[in-house]
Write a structure and sequence with these properties.
The chain is built from three helices and four strands. It is of the alpha+beta class. It binds 7,8-dihydrobiopterin.
Length: 96
């Protein structure tokens, strides 16, 4: 069992992860990305995949050509946890 995100950390999310939003109707963080083309989008996804494996925490995501959408939630916590914040921050650090 993974600890759910504390109320204090939940309240801090807009400051911690300004580019991420709370997904509608579910306890998940989401962010949309747009790249120059598919090659750039897929290269980003490949790097996120390695981060996910390293953190043992995996995204729910989709890709259409140069766009990637990522949702982060912790299945083992039934919603957001610190693992989602950690992965979101690591994903943001991949961007220029
Ligand atoms: N990824 N988003 C997410 N949520 C999980 O609960 C999770 C995961 N990746 C791996 C994983 N759990 C396993 O390590 C076990 O905890 C099931």
């Amino acid at each position: 069992m993974v600890e759910p995100l504390s109320p204090a950390r939940r309240q801090a999310l807009p400051d911690l992860l300004p580019h991420w939003s709370l997904a509608a109707g579910r306890d998940a963080l989401c962010r949309r990305f747009q790249f120059r083309d598919f090659t750039e989008a897929f290269g980003f996804m490949a790097r996120v995949a390695l981060l996910a494996e390293k953190q043992d925490h995996h995204p729910e995501w989709s890709n259409v050509w140069n766009r990637v959408e990522i949702a982060l939630t912790t299945h083992d916590a039934g919603g957001l946890s610190e693992r989602d914040i950690a992965l979101a921050a690591a994903v943001d650090a991949l961007l220029p």
